[in-house]
Amino acid sequence: MATELAPNQVVPPALPMTGPARKRHKRGRRQRPLWRDLLRYRWLYVLLLPGLAYFIIFKYLPMYGLTIAFKDYVPFLGYSGSQWVGLEHFEALFTGPDFGRLMINTLILALLTIVFVFPAPIVVALMLNELRIRVMKRSIQSLIYIPHFLSWTIVASLTYLLFSVDFGVIAGWLHDIVGGQRVDYVAQADWFRPLIVLQLLWKQTGWGTIIYLAALASVDTQLYEAARVDGAGRWRQFWHITLPSIQPTIVVMAILTSGNLMDSGFEQIWLMTTSLNRDVADVFDTFVYYVGITQGSFSYATAVGLFKGLIGVVLIFGSNLLAKRLGQRGLF
Q1: Angstrom distances, CA of residue 170 to CA of 116, 177, 325
Q2: Prediction pTM value
Q3: What is the spatial distance between Cα 121 and Cα 320, in angstroms, rounded to a whole number?
């Protein structure tokens, strides 16, 4: 046939389509228009509506209220009728006598959280992963999950029952061991931060292990078998297989945690604050409640909260950029 190729004839490569030909090709390749796809998967979009409505109503629409941080807000005048004052409230925050104390207290609690609270779920998950007795492993998991479901009111009440100077069980044991004068751990400023860290460890460590245990469960067991064949012990397997496998999860959790470093937890701090430890207990969260609700300075409290939120956004983007510079995937 005339159209058949010779044995040694080379077929020239097809030229890439450009311009109108490429657009016509894309239109021809599309099977259905967009509205038909929407109609076909309409029930999936209907299921999406409640979640979308939640974020719009409770997350995005309230952001309009942030404008009162730049106004002298008067509830009777409303958002639009209140006088615009610009950055006056931010200047009052940065030059006020409370800013340095609030920043130091918040940063110290954030540092303690990074050093002690953040690694705790990782360590516990790695220890649970080494258990081979399934009944014991599941029992320990259930026991350490329970504190997460307790409110901070119950946690603070238990802390007072255990560490109070009058009837605290642990306080009594420590006094019998150390001797000397009894110490009121829940009231003294020197013991405020250690108690906060202990509460966080007890309440959040078990729940945080869920994510890391899920990451450990996804590690290919053939890697361990190959390592054992090569003569690697438990420590070598842990260092060269287990840790690198959960490293992306650790990086993502670190980025998410960095955005909440300025959130010290209002309820926990407020319940543990007394007149004797207020100098070290006051943080931005409690200060916003104090000046906004107690004193009625809504604009000033909004400015403080907006400053804290902006710091959280900067920390998230900064930590994500740092993770990518170090060769990790990052969060976005």
Answers
A1: 21, 11, 47
A2: 0.80
A3: 21
